Amino acid sequence: MPVKAQSQFLQVVTRDEAERRFREHLALVPLGAETIALHAALGRVLADDVRAEIDVPGFDRSNVDGFAVQAEATWGAMEEDVRTLSLTDESLAPGIVPQREVINGVATSIATGGMLPRGADAVVMVEYTDADAGQVHIRRAATAGENVSYAGTDIARGETVLRAGQALSSREIGVLAALGMAEVSVHRKPRVAIFSTGNEIVAPGAPLPTGAVYDSNAAIISAAVQELGGEPVRLGVIPDDEAALSAALRKGLDCDAVVFSGGTSKGEGDLSYRVVAALGDPGIVAHGVALKPGKPVCLAVTGGKPVVILPGFPTSAVFTFHEFLAPVIRAFAGLPPEQRKQVAATLPMRINSERGRTEYLLVGLVPTDDGMSAYPMGKGSGSVTTFSSADGFITIGQHTEIVEAGTPVQVQLLGQALEPADLILIGSHCVGLDWLSGELMRQGIRIKSMSVGSTGGLMAAKRGECDAAGIHLMDPATGEYNLPLLTPALELITGYGRMQGIVYRPGDARFEGRTAADAMAVALADPTCTMVNRNAGSGTRILIDRLLAGAKPAGYGVQTKSHNAVAVAVAQERADWGLAIDTVARQYGLAFIPVQEERYDFVIPKARLERAPVKAFIALLQSSSAREALRNLGFRVD
Ligand SMILES: Nc1nc2c(c(=O)[nH]1)N[C@H]1C(S)=C(S)[C@@H](COP(=O)(O)OP(=O)(O)OC[C@H]3O[C@@H](n4cnc5c(N)ncnc54)[C@H](O)[C@@H]3O)O[C@H]1N2
Ligand code: MOO
User: Fold this and answer.
1) What is the pLDDT of residues 162-214, one digit of tens each?
2) Which residue out of 217, 265, 295 has the highest number of ligand 2 atoms within 8 Å of its CB and is therefore the one to mutate?
3) Which 3 state secondary structure label does DSSP give 116?
4) CA of 264 to the centre of ligand 2 (A)
5) Pick from 542, 543, 539: which is nearest to 481 by CA?
6) Domains of the chain
C-alpha cells in the first residue's frame, strides 16, 4: 500500500497566546444554580452564601450532667467545706423548657444538652456533688459560665457561615444540617462530553489484539472532570471515520463542553481536526502550541462551548487538559481558580530540553540534607504512569536547551501537598523488589520508589538521596557484580541472583536442547536468525557482547532498554532471540537457555543504616519468608 503524503495543519503559537484566544470566546462563569436535597450535596459547589437564620445552639446549654446554679452560691466550696443548696422540683432533660428560676441558694438538676434555667449561670458536674432529699451538697466552686455554651456561640443568627464557590464536604454538610437546611442551592454541574478516537483504541474490559491500546485517556479525563466539579458524559471509543466522528461531536455538543483525544498531530488521517474545523462561531482558535508535552493540542469554541482535541499520548493529553480545559470547567462549576503549590528543589542531573517549546518536566521529589531534589520521571509523552507517580513538574523555558545538574528549580505540585515517605528506593526496577516493597507497605511503611536504572540508583546513593538503591552492575574489568563499584560511604546488602540467558520461542530448532555456546554458533551461522539487543551500559549488554565475541548479527542495532522489551520482541516475532532474565522469560511463555547469573543487590548509604525503615527493609530481605517468596518468583537466593 503506498504511503500517503502527510500534510501539516499545525500552526504553533505560544501557550499564553493559545490560552488568550481560547478564553476570548468563553465566559468563565458558573452555568447556573439548582436546588438539591442536602443528602445529595456532597462534592457540589455552593451557589450562594449561606447566612444563618437561627442561633446554634438556640439556647444557653449545659455541657455536662450536674446542677444548674448561680456560681456565686458555690464560692469557697471544698471537699471539707461543702455548700448546700436546695433543689427545685424540676429535672432538665434536653428538650425541656425550664419553669423554675434558680436564685441564690437554689439548684436545678440538669442533663448534658439541657436548657439553662433563668437565673443560673453555671453548671456543677455531678461528680463534685452529693444529693439527698431536696438538697445538693457542692464540693467544688464554679465560675460564672462554667460548663455552659451560650446561645449563638457556635453560629450566630445573621452570620455568613459558608460562601458561594465553596465545595461541600461532609463537614460543610453538617453545618447546613445544623442550620435546619434540607435543601441547598448549588451550581449546576458542567456536563462534559468525552470520547476517544483511533481504530487501535480498545475500551478496558475487552480483549486486546496485538498492536491495540486500552483507552486510558477517556478514563483519566472523565475522573478529572468529576474532580473539577463536572459531570462526564462518556461517548466511548469512536473509530477513525469522519461520519462517526461528526456524529459523536454533534452529540457531544448537547453538553457544555466536548473533549476528545487522538489523531490531532498528523495530516492524513487527521480526521479529528477536520470534523472540528467544520465548526463555526468561531471554530478552531489554536491548533499547535509550543508546549512539550502537548504540541498538537487543538482548541476550538463554538457558540460559547469549548471543544478540545487532546493529543493521543496520555501524558500529553492529561497535561493539555489541565492546562487549557480544567480552568474552564472549574469556572463553569463555580469553583475559584486553582492555586498550585510550589516547592523549591534542586535538579540532581543535567537535563536536555527542546528549544522552541516550553517544556513541563514531571519530577519526583526526594528530601535531602539541604532541601529537596527533583528527579525527572519522564518516560515520554506516551507514558500513562508518569503523571500518577510524579509529585509535580518544573517548567523549562522555550529558549533553554540545557539545565545543568545542581540548578535550583521551582516544582509545581500536582496534589495539594507532598506525600511523605519513610523509605526512598531509587534504582533499577525488579519484580523481586516490588514484592519486598509490598510487604513493607503492609507493615505501614510508606515507600517512594523511582526506577532510574542501576547507574542512576548508584549515583543517588552516593549523593545520599535514597535509603536503598537496587543495582545490577557488572564491573567490566573483573566481571564481578556491584561490590567493586562501592565507595567507603556505601554498604552493600546482598540481594539475590537473577539468571540471565538466551530467550527464544519454544520449539525453535535453532535453540531447542542446545547449550548456550552451541545455540550461539547455530544462530550466527543463520543469516535469517535475528536478535534483539540491549542498551549500551547495561550489564546484560556486556554479557551479550561477550557471547557474540565481535559478531554483529541481524538485529544487533535494535537496542531495547529492558528485559521485558527483549521478551516482547521475541514473543511477537520481531526477533528470534535475545538475552533476558528467566523470571521474565517465564512471564512471556518463552524458552530459556541459562548463561550467567547476575547479582541484584542493594546499596545503602551508611549514614542511613540506622533508620528504622531501613532496618525493617534489611530484616525483611534477610527473613526466611522473603527468601522463600523470592525463590518462588524465580530468583536465586543463597
Ligand atoms: N510527524 C509528526 N509526528 C508527530 C508530531 C509532529 O508534530 N509531527 N507530533 C508528535 C506529538 S508531540 C504528539 S503528542 C503525538 C500526538 O499524536 P495524535 O494526537 O495525533 O495522537 P495519535 O497519533 O492518535 O496517538 C498517539 C499515541 O497515543 C495513543 N493513544 C491515542 N488515544 C489514546 C487513548 N484514548 N488512550 C491511550 N492511548 C491513546 C495512540 O495509540 C498512539 O500511541 O504525535 C506525535 N507525532
Ligand atoms: O507534544 Mo507531544 O505531547 O511532545 O509528545
Assistant:
1) 999 999 999 999 999 999 999 999 999 999 999 999 999 999 999 999 999 99
2) 295
3) coil
4) 11
5) 539
6) 15-27+189-332 (3.40.980.10), 33-56+154-187 (3.90.105.10), 61-149 (2.170.190.11), 342-413 (2.40.340.10), 420-638 (3.40.190.290)
